Amino acid sequence: MRIMHVISTPASGGAEVYVKDLSLAMVAAGHSVHITFLETAAECGRDLEYEHRFLSQLSAGNVSYSFLGIETRRRPWRGATRLRREVTRFAPDVVHCHLYYALMFAFGLPRQLPVMMTVHSIELGAPAWMFRLFDRRVTAYVGICRACTDKLAPIAARPVVQIDNAVSGARLKASGWREANQQAPVQLAAIGRLTDAKQYPLMLESCARLKAQGLAFTLRIAGEGPHKAQLMAQIEALGLHDEVSLLGNISDVAGLLASADAFIMSSAWEGLPISLLEATLSGLPVLVTDVGGCAEVVHRVGNGLVVDQHTPERYAEALRRLVGDAELRRAFARNARRYGASYHIDTALSGHLALYGSHQPAQDTSGLEVTP
After folding, report:
1. Could you tell me which CATH class the domain 170-342 is placed in?
2. Which of 137, 160, 262, 338 is most buried, judging by how many CB atoms fall within 10 Å of its CB?
3. With 0-12 CB in 10 A as exposed, 13-18 as middle and 19+ as buried, what is 346?
4. How far is the C-alpha of 370 from the C-alpha of 372, rounded, in Å?
5. What are residue 222's phi and psi, to 5 degrees?
6. What's the pLDDT score for residue 73?
């Protein structure tokens, strides 16, 4: 098949990384893939070096790409014209939108062309009434976890298919178990944009409580975002400058996870975080809040703890269990290695190809195309 994905930016977000992994897997499986980005990193103030690495990986994997331009947000008729031009040039069998704004551009595409839409967060990003408009162009929706699928299904008239997010194990390294020095600080890792969604102040306040209890740990947080100055001030105010580091965007996520003893999240809302799946396939114990599909991963794999109440007391209690109990971490890590494979990119690849194939023209016995 010839497959076109439409997404926002070649940036460090989970949806973008997922589309990259999925596209590379599709090409490796023998399909042709083109990614149409809405805007460049420079146009929206994101990391230029990360964009360069992202696009280089696409090129190395024979995934082509193009940009519509940020001005199409203000002038959607230009977006529709440019997307139609890209579709004419690439001639896809299916267009898969990972951005609501792109659906508005898709109304100008040929009606016989299937258009899929993935919802990447439990926060749908659009009011329910807009789905009556989306339904006129969307062939089927994809929910990236059970929580997202259940939230979308009641308001969408088109089919909603659950295909869980996944990651490529090829770019990850197995986390090692450090036996040499049990007195060494426990190495914690977190990955995600420095925004309200990730709720880092909760994580930092909980870390301060652990330090007050005498537990030895370090926390390295990878990610960019608008809250950097605020979080740096909180780290200083809580006296965590020796324990907590803000790394910014990093090129070696696999190395960060491989050197960690545990992965932690404190999100206020999520879909099914790619960073959580990366940690799981790396063999790490995890700590997550019960948002989106996070608990689904932990319950399926058995590799960590889930915090139901987003308070420093509850989060610090769970974090203390994880940091203070090496045998518990060992058991969680063993489960991650044993049961995490269901979140490998090959599983998501099969689900997407089956979905696309179910909406392709079929040949009848006379050789004429018929629509299934």
Report:
1. alpha beta
2. 262
3. middle
4. 6
5. -105, 130
6. 86
| Strand-pair category, 140-143 with 115-119 | parallel
The answer to whether 165 and 348 are in contact (CB under 8 A) is: yes
Residue-wise pLDDT for 358-369, tens only, equals: 998 765 444 445
Q: Domain ranges for the chain, please list them.
A: 2-166+345-370, 170-342
Alpha-carbon distance 361 to 111, whole Å? 13
3-state secondary structure of 292: coil
pLDDT in tens, 300-323: 999 999 999 999 999 999 999 999
Which of 125, 38, 36, 21 lies closest to 76, judged by CA? 38
- Do the beta carbons of residue 291 and residue 298 sit within 8 Å? no
Q: pTM for the full model? A: 0.88
Residue listed under structure tokens 């102040």: 201
Give CA 311 to chain center in angstroms.
25
CA 136 to chain centre: 27
Closest CA to 102 of 85, 115, 89: 115
Q: How far apart are CA 166 and CA 10, in angstroms?
A: 18
Q: How far apart are the first and last CA of the chain?
A: 16
**Cα separation of 247 and 360, whole Å?**
45
d(CA 340, CA 164): 13
211 contact partners, CB below 8 Å, separation of at least 6: 217, 239, 240, 243
- Strand, helix or coil for residue 223: strand
Cα 37 to its chain centre, rounded Å, is: 16
- Phi, psi of 354, rounded to the nearest 5 degrees: -65, -40
Q: Both tokens of residue 69?
A: 């331009």
Contacts of 359 (CB under 8 A, 6+ apart): 94, 114, 139, 140, 372
Residue 71 DSSP code: G
Q: With the C-alpha atoms ordered 127, 129, 130, 131, is the resulting torsion angle positive or negative?
A: positive
| Site of tokens 């044993």 | 338
Q: How confident is the model at residue 176 (pLDDT cuts 50, 70, 90)?
A: low
Domain 2-166+345-370 annotated CATH 1.10.10.10: no
